[in-house]
Amino acid sequence: MPTARRSDHTACLALADGTLFWGRGFGATGQTTAELCFNTAMTGYQEIMTDPSYAGQVVTFTFPHIGNVGVNPEDDEADRPVAEGLVVKWDPTEPSNWRAAERLDAWLARHGRIGIGGVDTRRLTRAIRQQGAPHVALAHDPEGNIDIEALVASARAFPGLVGLDLAREVTCRQSYRWNETRWAWPGGYGRREGPGHRVVAIDYGAKRNILRCLASAGCDVIVLPATASAEEVLAHQPEGLFLSNGPGDPAATGEYAVPMIREVMEKTEIPIFGICLGHQMLALALGARTVKMNHGHHGANHPVKDLETGKVEITSMNHGFTVDSQTLPDGVIETHVSLFDGSNCGIRMTDRPVFSVQYHPEASPGPQDSYYLFERFAAAIAARKQTTA
Ligand SMILES: NC(=O)CC[C@H](N)C(=O)O
After folding, report:
1. Start and end of every Carbamoyl-phosphate synthase small subunit N-terminal domain (predicted)?
2. DSSP string of 15-44?
3. Dihedral angle over CA of 301, 368, 279, 319, nearest 10
4. What domains does the chain contain, in order, with CATH numbers?
5. In whole angstroms, what is the distance from residue 264 CA to residue 229 CA?
6. I need a labelling partner for 362 at 20 to 30 A (CA). Which of 52, 212, 220, 286 fits?
């Protein structure tokens, strides 16, 4: 059932099934195709838009007031918005926040990202829940000249995220040392003094706050591009290996990541920690499978149960694929599950300090309940250093 077009409508979101959502365009003009997801976080639109895991996706915000605090240079998770576009209920207003350096719409325009406002995001979110994350095309033309048939055809032509390796596109081009001294959160978890644990972090589209959290927990972090080989990883003589979050299909990314992880595990017994895409690739390397979810998890208040302590953490989430816990091999146990749908949220090896989680302990945006995982990784490195000293 298409929504009617009004005279002030300058943008249109077309779903591949032909459903149209008209609204007012803001940000860049032009057209983009993507998979559509919804995010339920009530804060942190800038962190969400700049999270490289959103490559290939347009984000619908269920929270209506998006843009009201503007954007600033400190809250970027990457050097630009990476999500393809955004869909919001209310048009962005003049920012009202002392940290704002720019309006959301101006920032989006500068980075070629399209926004559409005035959309019934509740109805859209229901459609996403019912039919699964749809393929969409989003167009913005200030004159309102939008060829609807062509737009729907573009949405239909979008190949989808299954089988798509996007980490290769968003990763860093060269290795570098993380030397920012900022805290992971205002007022908390400061960077430690003294020589840190030597950690190699593979950048599949890493959020900056993950690297800050690793540094805050006492790690000296060298970041390597996604396609780094085991040889390149081991050349840094790492005391720990970190596998980052990232966009796209883990099975496609696994083509180069899985052989690297397996070889590192054959040659050393250093602690390994993975987050989100890194979690999925660790699971693949250990012999499990990943599957596409209906509409994924994207928000900042997802309850997760730690099966070993019985504790519940409220977590930040952003994933459209999941590890099939039925396929975990012997020697690998499920450590965390989602209390929304029982899907896998964490694994660990029983005989090695190798573990990973599906959610985002670095928050940004979201609650900080799960920061302990960074401390756990650092403690595992310290313990191994003592026994091998
Ligand atoms: N945040 C992430 O690392 C996302 C992982 C993967 N691209 C997914 O959608 O499941």
Report:
1. 9-139
2. ETTS-EEEEEEEES-EEEEEEEEEE--SS-
3. 30
4. 11-157 (3.50.30.20), 167-388 (3.40.50.880)
5. 9
6. 286
Residue 276 designated active-site: yes
What is the rounded average pLDDT of the residues 328-347? 98
Can you give the C-alpha Rg of the chain in angstroms?
A: 21
Is 345 a known active-site residue? Answer: no
How far is ligand 1, taken at its centre, from the CA of residue 314, in Å? 18
- Please indicate if the annotation marks 320 as binding a ligand: yes
152-161, pLDDT tens digit by residue? 999 999 999 9
Question: Could you give the ipTM of this predicted complex?
Answer: 0.97
- pLDDT, one tens digit per residue, over 251-280 is 999 999 999 999 999 999 999 999 999 999
Reported as a pLDDT band with limits 50, 70 and 90, residue 4 is: confident
Expressed in angstroms and rounded, the spacing between residue 277 Cα and the centre of ligand 1 is: 5
Catalytic residue among 12, 219, 276, 345: 276
- Residue 221 host element (H or E): strand 219-225
The gap between the terminal CA atoms of the chain, to the nearest Å, is 68
Active site residue 360: yes
pTM above 0.90, yes or no: yes
